[in-house]
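Sorry to interrupt, but I need a hand with the structure work. Could you write out one complete protein record for me, on any chain you like? Just paste the record in under my message, thanks.

. . .
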Amino acid sequence: MTDPAAEVRRLRTEEQLSVREIQARASLGRNRVYELLRGLPPPARTRRPNAKDDLRAETVELRAAAPARRPRFVNSDPALIELFLRFAEALGEHRGALRYRVAIHETADVEIEGS
């Protein structure tokens, strides 16, 4: 008589069966099969496609292309601007080579000297 745990693990690792297939072969309940398979990854063929898989691949491509792109940052907090400048320098950008664009909203609360 074979050990059910060993047989279930063998069916998963050697024959690459799904939980449902193992249930049918071993005549065990779903919860018992899951308990015996704890820690074993499912076979690749039983894995459902995940919408995030494509996003992950795209992220890897974008990260690989990142050194060719210039970083862009929009904020008005001086501390965050300084942090970003240090980040840009860590990426190999020189402060003198960076381009700056300033935009002041018409409702900005700016004190004018001499008033």
